[in-house]
Design brief:
mainly alpha, two-stranded antiparallel sheet
Length: 407
């Protein structure tokens, strides 16, 4: 009797496993679980919460294992797309070998693993986790549970707060990313009060963090989305012009173009050039530190060990401060030219895939501008839009917008 019950139980379990493997939603759920675990670790890593390094290693390892299970059991690839995926993962592995940095490999894993996962759900999870952890750090810093790092300007009149995050600009970048993702999810449902809330947040960030460049990016995203919202409703241009695909070419190539501009300005920078010196001043010495990066590091294919000392995690200003804030140069120095080209190609292909989604193009445009002055391009805690490459497209996007060769 027990034997029959055991056999029946085994069959029931076997049927259950088969049904789960046959269900397309299971793969997406595994990825969303992996992404949630990974993102929690990434966001907590930007705060002052003292979490052992082993925990972060475990979190990333669990996320990668789950993604590997999802890819092996649920994803199907054509020959070309399969070898593209293998080559991307190989580049990530070579970056680890060459530089010792793992961020490129994990970024590639997350991009590849997002195949057929609803992009909207990815962003919803991103928003929930990011808001929760940033708000938790903010409240904990005010209650003295963790330290609120405060920096005084040389004149002593302005105090810059980090509110539980490692540095003031990182806190501002979190707010920027949260507003951007929220705006994209709201899309055509954006109303005046949404913009008012964003303006208030930008003003508060400026008042208490004094991060001028980041606040300008927040106002830029507000302005761009207002224009796109009016564009989408047909208040600015004729329908014929708005639906023309050639009009989106500049949007598709905005990141490579801005990356090229920033690299060129940095390479040509000289304090003797008045124009470049003025630009450098506006960008808070980002050109000068980038040029110093070119003297300290060589341009390699798969990256190198590129130590940088920033002011985060402490209120003690370092005498030998050196940090490259521009994402394009940061990625170039640390992860190499090949990975930088992969990142730029991913965003171009994302824009091609969403070429009729002006809100997505606007989001990538703002991210591209922000990455000229912030180093968070391949940090998913700040920039999740690259995950759209293989993710399931929104319902309102037509089938023609899919990248058929990557299916």
């Amino acid at each position: 009797m027990n034997s029959r019950a055991g056999v029946a139980q085994t069959r029931k379990l076997s049927n259950r496993i088969r049904s789960l493997l046959a269900d397309e939603k299971t793969g997406a759920q595994i990825y969303l679980l992996a992404f949630s675990i990974f993102l929690c670790g990434e966001c907590l890593g930007t705060t002052m919460f003292q979490i052992p390094g082993r925990v972060y290693v475990l979190v990333k390892a669990v996320a990668v294992v789950l993604i590997a299970i999802k890819i092996i059991l649920f994803d199907q690839y054509r020959a070309r797309s399969f070898w593209i995926m293998v080559c991307m993962l190989a580049v990530g592995a070579l970056v680890i070998v060459s530089s010792g940095y793992t961020e490129a490999f994990f970024w590639i894993c997350m991009v590849v693993g997002a195949k057929n996962v609803p992009f909207k759900k990815i962003l919803q999870i991103y928003l929930i986790i990011s808001v929760s952890i940033v708000l938790l750090a903010f409240c904990a810093s005010l209650l003295d549970v963790i330290e609120n790092l405060q920096y005084e300007r040389d004149d002593g009149y302005i105090v810059r707060n980090s509110f539980g995050i490692l540095y003031t600009t990182d806190f501002a970048s979190h707010i920027f990313s949260i507003v951007l993702v929220a705006f994209y999810l709201l899309r055509d449902r954006l109303r005046i009060y949404h913009y008012v809330i964003a303006v208030v947040l930008a003003v508060l960030v400026y008042r208490f963090c004094y991060t001028r460049v980041d606040v300008i990016c927040i106002f830029l995203l507000i302005g761009v989305f207002i224009v796109v919202n009016l564009w989408d409703r047909g208040h600015l241009l004729s329908k014929k012009f708005r639906t023309g695909e050639k009009n989106t070419l500049l949007f598709r190539w905005c990141m490579p173009i801005l990356a090229g501009i920033m690299v060129a300005l940095t390479a040509l920078y000289s304090s003797d050039n008045r124009i470049l010196y003025r630009i450098n001043t506006i960008l808070s010495d980002r050109l000068a530190y980038g040029k110093l990066g070119f003297t300290r590091f060589s341009v390699t294919l798969f990256g190198q060990y590129a130590p940088m000392e920033g002011n985060g995690s402490t209120v003690v200003h370092l005498k030998d401060y050196f940090f490259v804030d521009c994402s394009y140069l940061y990625v170039l120095f640390r992860y190499g030219l090949i990975f930088l080209l992969i990142v730029l190609a991913v965003y171009v292909l994302c824009c091609r895939k969403f070429r009729k989604d002006y809100y997505f193009l606007a989001a990538v445009l703002v991210v591209s501008v922000n990455c000229m002055i912030a180093h968070h391009l391949v940090e998913l805690a700040y920039s999740p839009f690259a995950l759209a490459l293989l993710a399931a497209v929104p319902d309102e996007t037509t089938e023609k917008q899919r990248l058929l060769w990557l299916r």
